[in-house]
Amino acid sequence: MTDTPDLTRDPERAPMFRHTNIRDEVYALLRRRILSHEYPPGFRFDLRDLSSRFGISQTPMKEALQRLEMEGLVTIVPRRGTFVATFDTLGMAETYDVRLALERFVSPAVVRNITGADLDALGRLLTRMSDLIHSADANAKLPEYVGLDFDFHCRIVALARNKRMDEIYAQVGGPLQLARVMIDLGTEVYVRFTEVEHAAIFTALEARDADALANALTEHVERAMVRLSAWFARRGPPNGATE
Question: What is the pTM of this model?
Answer without folding.
Answer: 0.74
